[in-house]
Each structure stands twice: as structure tokens, then as C-alpha cells.
Design brief:
This protein is of the alpha+beta class and 115 residues long. Helices cover 54% and strands 16% of the residues.
Length: 115
């Protein structure tokens, strides 16, 4: 499993119009019940990570820390992004599956973490 797989799926979600990106849109998607998965950049500030991990825990939305800001941004056609929400259940499950396989030895240690 390579990082490209997760970011490719995120790009597909964006093309389908199923991504909310940036802190404001991601927060609105989580609180409105539209978010199915949240990705946080590993470079996001500690306050941003805490805010979104607590929010996602409360609203029962899976959240993962993955990739650099530039990588997340490039995947969704932006310069950089600290966070993004996937709004489609099928794509969210596919991304989560890739992330979990990464944890089971497919990625170098320390590349990502989740809740």
C-alpha cells in the first residue's frame, strides 16, 4: 500500500464533489452529519488536531492523521489543506481500508495515525 492510493481516492472523491476541505467546511460537514471520514494533515497544529479529533469522536466520524498539507491539498486541487472531510460513504470506506492496511505493515512507521 502506498500513500498514492489514499490520495488518489481522495482526488476521486473531490472530482465527484464529495469532499469538504479546510477547517470551516470540514467542521460544518462533521456537525451537519454529512462527513463520513476526516483526514487531518500530520502537519496540522496541535490545536487543530485536538479540535477535530474531539469533534469526530463526539459525532462518531472516523478521523485519521495522514500526509503533509501540500499532499492533501494537491489531491483535492488546492495549494495546501490541514484537513478534509469525505462525504461519500463508499469512498470513505475505501480510504479507511487503505489506511488500515497501511497500519498493518504496508507503510513506514510514523507516517500516519488515527482514532
Amino acid at each position: 500500500m502506498k500513500r498514492d492510493n489514499v490520495l488518489s481516492l481522495l482526488g476521486i472523491a473531490r472530482k465527484a464533489g464529495k469532499v469538504a476541505s479546510g477547517e470551516f467546511q470540514t467542521e460544518q460537514a462533521v456537525k451537519s452529519g454529512r462527513a463520513r471520514l476526516v483526514l487531518l494533515s500530520t502537519e496540522a497544529s496541535d490545536n487543530t488536531k485536538k479540535k477535530f479529533l474531539n469533534m469526530c469522536d463526539f459525532y462518531k466520524v472516523p478521523a485519521y492523521s495522514y500526509g503533509k498539507k501540500e499532499e492533501l491539498g494537491a489531491a483535492i486541487g488546492c495549494e495546501y489543506r490541514a484537513c478534509a472531510a469525505v462525504l461519500d460513504q463508499g469512498l470513505a470506506l475505501s480510504i479507511e481500508e487503505k489506511l488500515k492496511s497501511c497500519w498493518n505493515g504496508g507503510c513506514k512507521s510514523g507516517e500516519n495515525s488515527g482514532t
